[in-house]
Structure formats: C-alpha cells, structure tokens
C-alpha cells in the first residue's frame, strides 16, 4: 500500500514522488495515532488544529451513527434539516450578537472565498464598483484557493507560483507587537497609511485575530486588533476575521477576537468545527452586510454541492455540545501554563530564537530551517507526531491531553531540537 501511495497519491505541498516516506496510520484514539507496526505516538498537531477532543470520541461516533441512519446527505437548495438549523443557532449564539446570518461550506478556504464574495458584493450591489481590493497583512494565511491565496502573505504565500494570475491586493506590515508587549501607535502606522491611501479601492480588511497560523505562527497584541477595528469604522471598510485556526477555544477564549472585544463584520470558522471528524466550515455575517449584498435585487453567489452536509452538521453539533459543557477554558489554561513552564528551557539552546505560547499553542522558532525528514524520524522515535515548517516547530495538542502526555510531548521537543542544534 505504501508503494502505491508513493507512486500515485499526492500529499500536501509535496512532490508527486515524495522525498520522504509517509507514516501509515492504522487507527487513532485519544491523543494517540497508531502506526502500522503498532507503535502509538502522541499527536501534537491535533491534525492541523481540528481534533480538539482527541480521536475516536464516543459522543461524536454516536452522533455520526445516529445521523447516518437518518440521512447522510441531502442537497441544501430548496431543502433544509434539523442538524443545520441547530448548528446555525449554536454558532450564532456563541459568536458576537451582531452576526445574524450564516453560510455553511466544506472547508476553511471556501469559507474565506465566501467572505471575500460577501465583501465585494456588499459594495458592488450598492453600485460601488471601485472597491475591488482587500487589505491584508503580511505573514497571514487564509487558505489555498485563488481568492484566499490572494490575501496570503505575498512572499511565503504561494504568490510567486501564480504570478500574474492572482488578484492584486494590498498588504500591511505583519501585525505587532507581541501579545504581551506594550502598545505603541507606531505598530498601526503602516496599516493606517495604506488605508488612508487606498480606502476608496478597499472593500474589506482580512486578518487572523491574535494568532497568525500557517503564515508564521505569530502571536500579536489585542491592541492591534482594536486599532484595526477603529480604523475600519473610520473609513467604512468591512472587517473579515478568519478564525478558521483560532476558533473554538484554542487561544484561551472561545474566539480569539474576544481577547480584544472587537466585532467582526464577517467571521470565518472551520478546522475544529466538527472536532476533526469531517470537513466543514462556515461564514457568519451581520444584517447590515447581507442587506448590502442583496441591494438592487442581488443575492450572494455561492452554493456548494455539499453545503450544510447533515452528517457534518450533526457531528459539529455534538462536538460543540461536548466542548461547551467541558471545562475547556481550564484545560486550555492548564496546557498554556504547562507549555510556558516546560518549553521555557528550550530558550537555553543556541538554535532557538524564541518561544511563544498562547492558550493551547506552543511555538519554538529556530534560527535555521529544519530538516523535515530528519526531524520527523526523530520525533517518531521519541513517540510524538509534530510537523514543523520552515524554522517553526510548533504544537497545538488536543484539549484532552493529560499532564503526563503533554510532558512527553514537550520533553521530546526539547531533546530533538537540542539534537538538531548540535548537528
Ligand atoms: C487552515 C486555514 C484556512 C484554510 O482552511 P482549509 O480547511 O484548509 O481550506 C484558512 N484560514 C486559516 C486561518 C487557516 O488556518
């Protein structure tokens, strides 16, 4: 099977004939992935932010089987169903009260495409055809589809591979200062001047609140977010917050924008929405935005085949119920303080540039890019699954990870990073 995989199956951002061997996962339970040879390794990645309750969760399995026996899928054009209505209600309840409409889609990237369409159509439908650009931030990541790529970091965000094809947007300096650093107006200057200069062309601002994920694992001050909101209001520009990675408790708040007490005009959620069981995302917005979109008889032009898939909605409902009745905040705070304690000693290593921790996210920034194949092998030998990129070794474990398991994870990180620094 591995030979077949190697010959035919493409993996994320990887050559068709991969330079490194894939790990074969037989099953997964709790925080553990079971490999082909029976070894069990701790998943430090929550399968890219999504598996917040761990794997093979009885409550989610039950919700899936129950929904399967009713209907796995039904089209959403002209039809509706309880799982979607229930999920809409919950999501609109737990997010800002100004958000009153929700659009379900199949992935985070598509939720961003929908957000961008909402922003463009908001102005277009009202007769303003000039506003066809988005102001985004350097080091941002918003997904892999064309609209989403056009607002990803212009240097590391795949723009060079699609030169001349991507829509040209405007970029402000990466958000700063760091989470706990003192605020100074100089941190908003570049953003402010871009807004002043281009506001007649800008439909919306997009950013990942507080934590920039795949564009650099950067954690920034809530004051920046507050200032961005204030300036968007001043220039009457929509604010899209992309919480696809940060949503559902990961940063210590249910949604990261709560660190700054700001209100988005459009909000994207995904990744952890179904607890990592199925691909699903949503774009939430206000009455004001929908009224703008629908001015002069227009409607939002999007409608995926698997929109509001009942199976995914039912699992999302069970996942949110499980999350909201769990002591998730305590758990995430516990992970945060343990990460702070246990990753701190990495700072003594010369290879380490900086340690960053917020909520259940721990980042070790190195002074050099990692050798992915070498490091992956070492991590597995230490019993953990961690997938670094460039010079970033980072973890965001399932919230249910035990103290001992987390110590195994951080201990192994230290040992492997230390060994990497020595070669
Ligand atoms: C992962 C991610 C996306 C894209 O989600 P997919 O489900 O991979 O399409 C968009 N925005 C952010 C912030 C993400 O982390």
TrEMBL record:
Question: Where on this chain does pyridoxal 5'-phosphate bind?
Answer: 108-109, 242, 304-305
EC assignment: the record states 2.6.1.62
Q: Which PROSITE patterns match?
A: AA_TRANSFER_CLASS_3
Q: Which GO terms describe its molecular function?
A: adenosylmethionine-8-amino-7-oxononanoate transaminase activity; pyridoxal phosphate binding
Q: Where in the cell is it found?
A: Cytoplasm
Q: How does it assemble?
A: Homodimer.
Question: Under which name does UniProt file this protein?
Answer: Adenosylmethionine-8-amino-7-oxononanoate aminotransferase
Species for this entry: Sulfurimonas aquatica
Tell me the lineage of the source organism. Answer: Bacteria, Pseudomonadati, Campylobacterota, Epsilonproteobacteria, Campylobacterales
């Amino acid at each position: 099977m591995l030979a077949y995989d190697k010959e035919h199956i493409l993996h994320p951002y990887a050559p068709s004939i991969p330079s490194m061997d894939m790990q074969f996962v037989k099953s997964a339970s709790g925080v553990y992935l079971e490999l082909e040879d029976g070894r069990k390794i701790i998943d430090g990645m929550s399968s890219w932010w999504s598996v917040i309750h761990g794997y093979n969760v009885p409550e989610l399995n039950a919700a899936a089987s129950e929904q399967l026996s009713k209907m796995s899928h039904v089209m959403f054009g002209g039809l509706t169903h309880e799982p979607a209505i229930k999920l809409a209600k919950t999501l609109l309840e737990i997010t800002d009260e100004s958000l009153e409409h929700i659009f379900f889609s199949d992935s985070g990237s598509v939720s961003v495409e929908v957000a961008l369409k909402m922003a463009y159509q908001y102005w277009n439908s009202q007769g303003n055809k000039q506003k066809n650009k988005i102001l985004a931030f350097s080091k941002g990541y918003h997904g892999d589809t064309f609209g989403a790529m056009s607002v990803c970091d212009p240097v590391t965000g795949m723009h060079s591979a699609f030169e001349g094809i991507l829509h040209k947007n405007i970029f402000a300096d990466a958000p700063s200062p760091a989470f706990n650093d003192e605020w100074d107006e100089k941190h908003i200057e570049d953003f402010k001047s871009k807004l002043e200069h281009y506001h007649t062309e800008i439909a919306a601002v997009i950013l990942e609140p507080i934590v920039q994920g795949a564009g650099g694992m950067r954690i920034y001050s809530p004051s920046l977010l507050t200032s961005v909101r204030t300036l968007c209001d001043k220039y009457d520009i929509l604010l899209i917050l992309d919480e696809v990675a940060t949503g559902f408790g990961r940063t210590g708040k249910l949604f990261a924008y709560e660190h700054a007490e700001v209100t988005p005009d459009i909000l994207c959620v995904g990744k952890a929405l179904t607890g990592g069981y199925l691909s699903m995302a949503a774009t939430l917005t206000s009455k004001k935005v929908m009224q703008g979109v629908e001015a002069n008889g227009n409607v939002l032009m999007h409608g995926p085949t698997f929109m509001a898939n009942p199976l995914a909605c039912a699992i999302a409902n069970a996942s949110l119920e499980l999350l909201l009745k769990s002591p998730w905040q305590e758990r995430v705070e516990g992970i945060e303080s343990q990460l702070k304690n246990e990753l701190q000693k990495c700072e003594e290593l010369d290879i380490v540039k900086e340690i960053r921790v917020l909520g259940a996210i721990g980042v070790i920034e190195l002074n050099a890019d990692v050798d992915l194949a070498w490091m992956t092998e070492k991590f597995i030998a230490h019993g953990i699954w961690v997938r670094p990129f460039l010079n970033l070794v980072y973890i965001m474990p399932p919230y249910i990870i035990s103290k001992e398991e987390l110590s195994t994870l951080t201990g192994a990180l230290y040992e492997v990073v230390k060994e990497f620094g020595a070669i």
